[in-house]
């Protein structure tokens, strides 16, 4: 019934009455940890799980639960420790590999992140994991490989907005402005409210000497509160020679 406060109180009564001398009683402790997590009681949840894990070291669910708590606390290191343990216990669950890859990304350990994402692709390929791989390659300054992953994401799902947005952004960095424009036009058809995509479209148009169209895009995002457009407007649209 999602009455977590009452559940915690009842589980606490049970634990106080029976103690933790019998191993079976630790299951009640685990249930209280779940209730604490569900009610955003992070430290009590960690305390309960940390008592439970030594008694049930093969429980990957407990490791995942504590990792979820650490995620709420933005604790990457402890999160990674528990995710690693859960991966060892499950034999390489693809969702856990995705999670670990994203943690390696946060730590800027891009080679390790790439390995995890490539492992996931071998098990269950999809546009999201291809985009994760693309962002890893981008962070490693390998734009060509990033574009390969972007195109693979599009092959898997031709209506996946992030692939077109990042395809446009990466193409801009490669100074491939016509290609960037094609990506960004589709990105904006799929998500007309994407101001960053419209901003990039404005840059691509200006670089292609289509200043009037480009300045319209840059003006629009600027007056919608996108301050990054200001410098481009000054340089390309409000110059004394315009």
Helix content percent band? over 70%
Distinct helical segment count: 14
Uncertain stretches: none
Name the structural class. Answer: mainly alpha
Q: Which H/E pattern describes the elements? A: HHHHHHHHHHHHHH
Radius of gyration: 25 Å
Largest sheet composition? none
Strand fraction: under 5%
Q: Provide mean pLDDT, rounded.
A: 93
Overall strand count: 0
Give the termini distance in whole angstroms. Answer: 66 Å
Describe the protein in words.
The chain has 242 residues and is mainly α. The protein has helices at residues 4-18, 26-38, 42-55, 60-72, 76-90, 94-106, 110-123, 127-139, 143-156, 161-173, 177-190, 195-207, 211-223, 229-237. Helix 3 runs antiparallel to helix 4 and helix 4 packs antiparallel against helix 5 (76-90). The longest helix is centred in the first third of the chain and has 15 residues, at 4-18. It is elongated and about 80 Å long. The model has no long low-confidence stretch (mean pLDDT 93).
Task: List the keywords.
single chain; 242 residues; mainly alpha
SSE diagram, text form:
Layout: H1 4-18, H2 26-38, H3 42-55, H4 60-72, H5 76-90, H6 94-106, H7 110-123, H8 127-139, H9 143-156, H10 161-173, H11 177-190, H12 195-207, H13 211-223, H14 229-237
Helix pairs in contact: 1-2, 2-3, 3-4, 4-5, 5-6, 6-7, 7-8, 8-9, 9-10, 10-11, 10-12, 11-12, 12-13, 13-14
